[in-house]
Model the fold of this input.
Amino acid sequence: MTTTLPPLATLPPLGARARGRRVLGVVRRDFAALRRSPIRMFEIVFWPTVELVLWGFVTLFLQTQKVPFAVGFLLGAVLLWQVLQKASNEISIAFLEDIWSRNLLNVQVSPLSSVEYLIGLMVFSLGKVAFAVAVMSALCLALYGFGVTAMGLGLVPFMALLLVMGWSLGLVGIAAVLRFGENAQVIAWSLVFVAQPLTGIFYPVSVLPAPLQTVAHLIPGTYVFEGMRTVLNGGAVPWGDLALAALLDVVYLGISLAVFGWALRYARAHGKLSRFGE
Done:
């Protein structure tokens, strides 16, 4: 005996089931677009793989120079950097694709709320990040003998903290496009790279000038990458630092949602939504 979901129209529009169905609709829409585009599926793993191979060769060179810890430090950094980068870029690019396909206005006039739309983008980006990281982890193990389990129990909070940070950056990028128009779309996909030199991804934060170290310690990702190096160096997971990073993530996510809401209201008030994609 099979069961079918009740039609969406028969559910209370503000009920949890109706909201969940609308969020699922966003995920299914984006998955259908991905499944029908081999180029998009190829791109999910192409650039992460290129970066992994590049840094893998660097680590092999460093090993010949008697720097044995380089393999774990650099490959672990590449894996976690991809979590941050893809979490940010996947939701911002998904939003831009609605603009490029002239579908943004349709989304906004549908029963789908802005929060449900964003949750759908985040859930779908989570799936793409998980797939890319799984592929990269397998390549790390096969090519360089480095397993992600070397990070121990810290791996899960490391990735979770970077996901939330990436989503916050993606939301700010989307807000910039809503406020300033399509000319600001470069911000949507490049904002995460502004944080790259400040978070100590491939080097300790201590090498930064003192003023930049202060800025770095206001970024959640800094504590993740510093914690990764601590764990790979044989130390314990710095739960206190990760708790501080989680607090910063919550603050920044709240700020980014507020900025997104403000930018969306501005775009609606000034009739910008109907002009996107022209």
Summary: The longest helix spans residues 70-100.
